[in-house]
Amino acid sequence: MKKYLISIFLLVSTILFALEFEKKLHFTNYIAEDDEQKANLNYELGIMNEELKRNTISNQYKKEALRLYKKLYKKTPNIEYKNRIKELEEK
Q1: Own/partner pairs, 14-23, CB within 8 angstroms, 24+ separation
Q2: First and final CA of the chain: distance in angstroms?
Q3: Contacts 24+ apart (CB under 8 A), 44-53
Q4: For every one of its 91 residues, what pLDDT tens digit does the chain have, with 9 covering 90 and above?
Q5: CA 81, CA 21: separation in Å to the nearest integer?
Q6: How far apart are CA 71 and CA 64, in angstroms?
Q7: pTM (predicted TM-score)
């Protein structure tokens, strides 16, 4: 059920971004059950803000995503985490 809520949240967030009604979204800690979901949400929000040239907000989300992906990778060396870490560190 939570995975569907996260998908819906991302869709709604995308629509809000497109309509320029987006305010800082701090819902991730309330709907995400674990660090992986939080990392993924922060990553996506960082990308969306970057596309809208909201660099300060984008960097905040990306910084949090990077922190979480590093934490996850330390626990479980996963290629997906490693790739996201590499991508976020390159930007």
Answers
A1: 14/48, 17/48, 17/49, 17/51, 17/52, 20/52, 22/48, 22/52
A2: 33
A3: 44/10, 44/13, 45/13, 48/13, 48/14, 48/17, 48/22, 49/17, 51/17, 52/17, 52/20, 52/22
A4: 666 777 787 777 776 665 554 444 555 566 778 999 999 989 988 998 898 898 998 999 999 999 999 999 999 999 999 999 999 999 7
A5: 31
A6: 11
A7: 0.72
